Amino acid sequence: MQSRDFDTRVRFVAELARRLHQYGTSAPRLEKAIDTVSARLGLLPSTLSTPTSITLSFADPADGEDALPRRTMVLRVNPGDVNLRRLCEVDAIAERVFNNELDIEQGLAELRALRSGMSVRAVGMQVLSFGIVGGTVAAMIRGSWADVVAAAAIGLIIGLLALVAERRPNFAPSFEAVAACVAMLLASLIAATLEPLNVRSVLIAALIVLMPGLALTTAVSELSTQHLVAGTVRMMGAAAVLLKLSLGTVAGVQLAKAFGWAALPGVLPAVPAWAEWIALLAASYSFAVLFQAASRDYPLVMLSAWLGYLATRVGSAWAGPEFGVFIGGLVVGSAANVYARWQRRPGALVRVPGIILLVPGSVGFRSLFFAFERDVYLSLDTAFSLLAILIALVAGLLFGNLLVPPRRSI
Questions:
Q1: How many whole angstroms separate alpha carbon 339 and alpha carbon 342?
Q2: How far, in Å, CA of 143 to CA of 135, rounded?
Q3: How many angstroms separate the CA atoms of 218 and 82, rounded?
């Protein structure tokens, strides 16, 4: 009977770890959460999380301080995508188990019952959000109205390609390269036949959802907290995505040249300043959709995106872009911990959308693109900018944790 109780607790913790990983929890936060949960359930854990696996080992305190693990398991998992709705549900189940409102077997059953799929409407909104984010980013970097429309249309097509890649495993490994190639070809075609475009800005705006800025930030955060395996693996994964995007873009450039698509002469005026704020509103809504937040959390997610963006703008005006990113990370990190303490819910609801406009995915993409164009100086200069922004953002988040210590791990 005692062995059965031990196994039940182990199964619950293992399922909790798998779900947290699946819904986008970083290695430091996952390991800390699992260690905390295990201790409260009377287990002595040893946890190692990486983007592709979780190793769990459990001993029983009743066996003494030098007890050998009774159970050890390795879970093979795919890198998780952020799903704020499911993350909150997992957190709530764990909280109810802690408070004896739910026994462990019922908690395990509820964890296993969580659905990972999306409704047809949710899938449609995800695809639409690719287009909205593309258009809004083009407006926020002050492109022309033609740039905004082109980026939105191309982003929508990339969203459809993402849907195909999700359902066709054979297509998924080459998805980023194909998406970048298609985006470059479409932008070049529009610029050659319809309206003058800033092709590079349109390309970055249309591909922004695919750029691994959040993964790069998480990787540096993991490395800075001595989670070296997880940080290195995640960094290499993000670099692979950037390489595929860059290769696809270069292929698109060469195909456009082969087709003889020369850009129309002329430069269109930039969108007015007020369009940036309308774009920010639309972008923050799209982030709530892309991060799969619950409907009731949409205002919070949108407000968090505004908070990070405005804090960064103020800091940049005061002391430059890198310091602005540091201030943005500091404000968002502190606000996330305050929210977690106040509402007893995951701070990720504030932290993830709050930094999404600060992460430097497009900078890494430009660095590699310059390298493929054999412009070594610009490539190195952009790479150093990427490093500076990453360090500033992660430092801001770490200082935010010092200013307001987190109540919970996620």
A1: 5
A2: 10
A3: 12
- Percent of the chain past pLDDT 70, that is, above it, reads 93
Residue 137 confidence (pLDDT) above 60: yes
**What is the distance between the alpha carbons of residues 18 and 9, in angstroms, rounded to a whole number?**
14
Is residue 299 a contact partner of residue 278, using CB atoms and an 8 Å limit? Answer: no
Q: List, in order, residues 6 or more apart from 77 with CB less than 8 Å away.
A: 18, 21, 22, 52, 53, 54
Q: For the chain, which residues make up each domain, given as ranges?
A: 2-113, 118-292, 295-410
CB atoms within 10 A of CB 5: 12
What is the DSSP track for 167-229?
H-TTTGGGHHHHHHHHHHHHHHHHHHHT----HHHHHHHHHGGGS-HHHHHHHHHHHHTT-HH
Dihedral angle, C-alpha 361, 363, 365, 367, nearest 10 °: -150
Out of 63-77, 121-135, 168-182, least confident range: 63-77
**Angle of the 274-290 helix axis to the 348-355 helix axis, nearest 10:** 130
Cβ neighbours of 193 (radius 10 Å): 10
CA separation, residue 120 to residues 54, 117, 127, 139 (Å): 31, 10, 11, 29
AA letter at 45? P
- Is the pTM for the entire model greater than 0.85? yes
Q: Rounded to 5 degrees, what are φ and ψ at 100? A: 60, 25
The closest alpha carbon to 37, from 21, 16, 53, belongs to 16
